[in-house]
Amino acid sequence: QVQLQESGPGLVKPSETLSLTCDVSGYSISSADYSAWIRQPPGKGQEWIGSFFRTGNILYNPSLRSRVTISADTSKNQFSLKLTSVTAADTAVYFCASVSTTWTVNYWGQGTLVTVSS
Amino acid sequence: QSALTQPPSASGSPGQSVTISCTGTSSDVGGYNYVSWYQFHPGRAPKLMIYEVSRRPSGVPDRFSGSKSGNTASLTVSGLQAEDEAYYYCSSFAEIDNLVFGGGTKLTVL
Question: Which of A:86-105 have CB within 8 Å of B?
């Protein structure tokens, strides 16, 4: 059974760095197609942040590329997100997910709410 | 504002059929058969319902079906059941942004 679980601080101060980790069970991220981060601001649709491919190739949303880093620790079967210089606009529920090469989000984590506020 | 346009709400009585639309452009929905639909229930992990326009993952009831015409994709739920009440979001591969989503539709079973 595939499970993804996000973890990290629920409150981040403006201008600081948001850091989240996704623990994966039920499949190996080193053999999956893409492992991805997606976010959903309150009352809005989702926004793709970026994807980590099993070969190490990483794709980022062009609108966030300058502030985002996605990395993976295959020994722990987990991958991480760092978003720098956050503002209130970065307040959202952040999901980690498994994405196929046809850009289908096969599995989602439950999501974790991150609020940017002083 | 989401890249793909969905109606904010849809509704139907038990047993009826409801169709939810998802409109994009030729650079996403219209240009590729990589449209998916997801069901969001509060407190649960979102669930894939339809992928590659009309394919259904194992375990998803055949009451759920997908189609596409031009730049608009559609999700049809036939034989509505109370458990189908949820938010539904579409997504598509997009040439520039890779993956884009709709703003979501709240499906209410009357």
Answer: 95, 99-100, 102-105
A 24-43 residues with CB < 8 A to B: 36, 38
Closest CA to A59 of A27, A90, A99, A24: A99
CA B97/CA A68 separation, integer angstroms: 15
Q: Across the strands, what pairs with B10?
A: B107
A87: CB partners within 8 A, 6+ apart:
A14, A15, A116
pLDDT tens figures, A13-48:
999 999 999 999 998 988 878 899 999 999 899 999
pLDDT digits (tens, 9 = 90+) for B51-108: 999 999 999 999 999 999 999 999 999 999 999 999 999 999 998 878 999 999 999 9
Is the Cβ pair A102, B51 closer than 8 Å? yes
Return the residue of B nearest to A95 by Cα.
B45
Cβ B52–A62 below 8 Å, yes or no? no
Q: Which residues pair with B92 in a beta bridge?
A: B35, B100
**Closest listed residue to residue B67, CA positions, set B51, B48, B53:** B53
Q: Are A61 and A50 in contact (CB under 8 A)?
A: yes
CB B6: neighbour CB atoms within 10 A? 24
Chain-chain contact of A104 with B96 (C-beta, under 8 angstroms): no
> What is the DSSP secondary-structure string of A97-108?
EEE-TT--EEEE
Query: Please, which pLDDT band fits residue A53 given cuts at 50, 70 and 90?
Result: confident
